[in-house]
Write a structure and sequence with these properties.
about 25% helix, Dna Ligase, domain 1, 9-stranded antiparallel beta sheet, about 475 residues, single chain, elongated, 3 domains
């Protein structure tokens, strides 16, 4: 009986202890943890709450505010778009910044911490709430900084890294992209040079073979000065470089800009990008070849952008660079016949009903994979270097007595492509291509060693080990 009462007493005691822990100790611990976490935060705001930022350095003050779409704008000392990524990176560093320890509650001297004349003064607003943070010298570890909040005047060692919060000037915080080029939406491109002009359009086409048959894809085409396929990779690379064109400095509207604009008379290149029914235009000038002084000009009321002269070189492309440099001049999906002639072999491959056959031996079974691989190598061979723009004497390049010749007939029955390979030199071979790619070029010479004989294209018979050849054939 006594043991039952003892068990009941222990049960009541344990229940009471659990109740105390659950209703008293745990809430108290949660509150203490929340307070400690809050105390370790450098600023008491979340990033989405911040409605304003003032950055003061020894070179001046920059005032920033977000618009309705949370895109950051500079409102002083001038009105301009801000580099949202730069601003957001700064705010994220402040929001995630932590107090490693309180160095002094009320410091008698601020100079040892670089807070007497702080390198940066940041005022962060969240609605009606504000906090000002003075940022001083690096702490004992290079990735830390001393700081002091205006609200409590404590000297703090923080987790802030110097690269995240220091040296944030007007130029750093200002949007530096000269043009905003959405590569996926550009459908027309015009490059105007002092002596010539290139015009490219993006057109839709439908692939015929393969699992993606019937799907519409976009491809770049040259419209002027010739009608031809464009080098897709080169055009896309040009658009990427245009999107990455950034200002190294600004000359804002005023007397200095007006005077400089008088000197910018003839652009090295004028680029017009057509997107969603509107044109964006930028003119690039290299004012001084000796100093490399170069500028970009967009709209009449926009600043002049100081740019690297290398950007002008990157965006100055000749016709050959942007033209499709595949020498044969016929796409694989439009190839109906491929005539092959070397010093040792001569034959014609016909592509019909999805299979390759030999013109003079149509009943002979061919290795379809080998034939397809060979044809694709011929079709895709690009010119690497242009030797001369207009073909003259052919003998010096081995093209008078070619090592190999290829002629392509398209599905409409017309001969559309031609490729001639001559002498080899240093891993390259001299070559001439279709009429739309005039001149003599150098291409990779490995195709010469990859031209199969007729016998190499035919399906090989396989012999089963231990059986006579006539029984081992399948």
């Amino acid at each position: 009986m006594k043991s039952i009462w003892l068990t009941l007493a222990m049960t009541v005691l344990l229940v009471g202890l659990g109740t105390y822990v659950y209703f008293v100790e745990l809430p108290s611990e949660r509150t203490r943890t929340a307070v400690e976490t809050q105390d370790k935060k450098l600023i008491p705001f979340e990033e989405q709450e911040i409605t304003g930022l003032i950055v003061r350095t020894e070179v001046g003050e920059v005032v920033l505010a977000p618009d309705d779409k949370r895109a950051w704008k500079i409102t002083a000392p001038l009105v301009a778009d801000a580099d949202s990524r730069e601003v957001e990176s700064l705010l994220r560093a402040l929001v995630l910044g932590r107090i490693s320890r309180v160095v002094e509650e009320q410091a008698a001297a601020l100079e040892p911490f670089g807070l007497e004349k702080p390198a940066t003064l940041l005022t962060i607003a969240a609605g009606s709430r504000r906090e000002t943070l003075s940022v001083g010298d690096s702490g004992p570890i290079s990735s830390t900084l001393y700081a002091m909040r205006a609200s409590d005047k404590k000297v703090l060692l923080t987790s802030l890294a110097p690269k995240d919060v220091l040296n944030k000037t007007l130029l750093t915080l200002r949007k530096k992209e000269v043009l905003r080029v959405d590569q996926a939406k550009v459908d027309r491109l015009r490059l105007a040079y002092p002596a010539n002009e290139l015009v490219l359009y993006q057109v839709e086409h439908t692939d015929q073979p393969g699992p993606a048959a019937g799907q519409n894809k976009k491809a770049w085409k040259l419209r002027y000065p010739i009608e031809a396929d464009a080098d897709q990779a080169e055009v896309n690379n040009l658009l990427i470089k245009l999107d990455n064109l950034k200002a190294l400095g600004f000359v804002d509207p005023g007397p200095q800009r007006d005077a400089l604009l008088q000197k910018l008379t003839k652009p090295d290149v004028k680029i017009t990008v057509h997107v969603d029914g509107t044109d964006q235009t930028v003119k690039l000038y290299q004012l001084d070849l000796a100093t490399g002084e170069a500028y970009a000009v967009t709209a009449q009321d926009a600043p002049l952008y100081r740019i690297s002269p290398l950007a002008i070189k990157d965006l100055t492309k000749e016709l050959f660079t942007l033209q499709d440099k595949r020498l044969l001049g016929v796409n694989m999906d439009d190839l109906a016949m491929l005539a092959v002639k070397t010093r040792d072999h001569q034959y014609t491959l016909i592509h019909q009903n999805g299979d390759w056959v030999l013109e003079d031996q149509p009943a002979e079974k061919l290795d379809q994979e080998a034939a397809d691989l060979f044809a694709s190598r011929v079709v895709s061979l690009p010119a690497e270097i242009r030797v001369v723009k207009q073909a003259g004497p052919l003998a010096p390049y081995g093209l008078a007595t070619p090592a190999a010749e290829f002629a392509a007939t398209a599905k409409d029955g017309k001969q559309r492509g031609r490729l001639v390979l001559g002498a080899s030199s240093g891993g390259l071979v001299y070559a001439m291509g279709h009429p739309g790619l005039p001149g003599i070029f150098q291409a990779r010479a490995d195709l010469l060693s990859q031209i199969p004989a007729k016998a190499d294209l035919k399906t090989k018979t396989r012999q089963v080990s231990g059986l006579p050849p006539e029984l081992g054939r399948k």
